[in-house]
Design goal:
Elements (H helix, E strand, L loop, with lengths): L2 E7 L8 H12 L9 H27 L6 H14 L6 E5 L6 H10 L4 E6 L6 H18 L4 E4 L7 H15 L6 E7 L3 H6 L25 H15 L7 E6 L12 H10 L4 E5 L8 H17 L4 E4 L7 H17 L5
Parallel strand pairs: 1-2, 1-3, 3-4, 5-6, 5-7, 7-8
Helix pairs in contact: 1-2, 3-11, 6-8, 9-10
The structure holds the ligand C=CC1=C(C)c2cc3[nH]c(cc4nc(cc5[nH]c(cc1n2)c(C)c5CCC(=O)O)C(CCC(=O)O)=C4C)c(C)c3C=C and fe (ii) ion (2 copies).
């Protein structure tokens, strides 16, 4: 059998124009694992309300962060793919869950190279219904419909793998070397609380009450909140951060449902009001810098902090195409090629 890799990230619009942003958001938000309400209600909400105003607003935000080569998320994912390809023997393709670089095209590219066994690699350290699950479900649907002879195995969330924590901690340490920060905020993309309850395989563990996520449970294999809190805990342990000098928050909420707390914008506000003058922020739910890190955090977050009296606001870049990160992903891929072990 010939093996190949399909790295999958979220995706971006083709350009930062309201028209392309609308097309992209339409596909993204109509995903039943992103806005998880019945089809009729989802259509009314997305097409009848969100897509009437949001594309213009989002396009303006995208314009602020767009690069000459294109969307930062896509460009950085492509750089990652190229660097991994230099370190592994088998073909490495890249796809996006939404937008033009489809998973179908990615699978076809591998099949055209003679691949019949694919390692599907969602580029998300933590599991979420709206990220990892939607990728694996779609890939399986495409396999059944178009590639019935293809074998696909998926890489699960790797949030607590010691070598991932080490690479992430080193990246944070290197970036913050010599910088004097009083507080390090770990900001993760949020999800509606409802998503956490839906993914609870035990159906009774998740209470979103702050304690369930630190009580051992089978539910944590698919609990986004637990997995985010664990990344913070493990990195803080590795970097020997003192209690009270770091915290976790959740960003990018959409709509009026309760999302995971505390919210990042409010947390930054609170830190500024409390008299913190120098803060740093890291965003471990994203492996590539994107709209949510470059605009929402590095621009809007910084502005909030300054308005509250804060001075230095340092954003730690995502792992992007960091050499240690590339080496780790290549090691995991090469291990799979040798003995089918998936990420240990
Ligand atoms: C951990 C990763 C992500 C989760 C979980 C996630 C959930 C989620 N997102 C929305 C709504 C939007 N997200 C948007 C942008 C965006 N989201 C992620 C990652 C996760 N989303 C990334 C990497 C990006 C940036 C993409 C880029 O091109 O750079 C947007 C678009 C921007 C905007 O208008 O704010 C929306 C909308 C929901 C509803 C959701 C639910 C669980
Ligand atoms: Fe929990
Ligand atoms: Fe999002």
């Amino acid at each position: 059998m010939k093996k190949g890799i399909l790295l999958v990230n979220l995706g971006s619009p083709d350009s930062p124009t309201p028209k392309d942003v609308k097309k992209y958001l339409g596909e993204f938000l109509m995903d039943e694992r992103v806005i998880d309400i019945p089809l009729v209600a989802r259509t009314a909400l997305v097409k009848g309300i969100i897509l009437k105003t949001r594309p213009k607003q989002s396009a303006a935000a995208y314009k602020k962060i767009w690069w000459e080569e294109g969307s930062p998320l896509i460009v950085l994912s492509e750089r990652l793919q190229k660097k991994i390809q230099e370190q592994v023997e088998m073909p490495v393709a890249l796809a996006m869950r939404y937008g033009s670089m489809t998973i179908k095209k990615g699978l076809q590219e591998l099949v055209d190279k003679g691949v019949d066994e694919v390692l599907l690699f969602p580029l998300y350290p933590q599991f979420a219904m709206a990220t990892t699950e939607t990728i694996t479900v779609l890939a399986e649907e495409l396999r059944q419909q178009f590639f019935p002879n293809l074998k696909i195995e998926s890489v699960p969330a790797f949030y607590n793998k010691p070598d991932y924590i080490e690479v992430l901690s080193n990246a944070i340490k290197n970036h913050l070397e010599g910088k004097n920060f009083e507080h390090l905020l770990f900001s993760y993309h949020g999800v509606p609380e409802r998503h956490i309850r839906k993914s609870d395989v035990t159906k009774s563990h998740c209470k979103i009450d702050g304690s369930c996520c630190t009580t051992p449970s089978k539910a944590h294999e698919f609990c986004y909140r637990h997995q985010c809190l664990e990344v913070t805990r493990l990195v803080a342990e590795k970097l020997e951060l003192k209690e009270g000098t770091y915290s976790t928050s959740f960003q990018s909420r959409l709509g009026f449902d309760p999302w995971l707390l505390p919210y990042t914008d409010r947390t930054i506000e609170r830190l500024g009001k409390k008299g913190i003058k120098n803060m740093a922020i890291v965003t471990p739910a994203f492996v590539s810098d994107c709209l949510e890190t470059l605009e929402e955090i590095a621009m809007e977050g910084q502005e909030i902090f300054h308005e509250m009296g804060g001075k230095d606001f340092t954003t730690v870049p995502c792992l992007n195409d960091d050499d240690e990160w590339v080496a780790l992903l290549s090691k995991w891929i090469n291990n799979w090629a040798i003995d089918e072990t998936i990420v240990v």
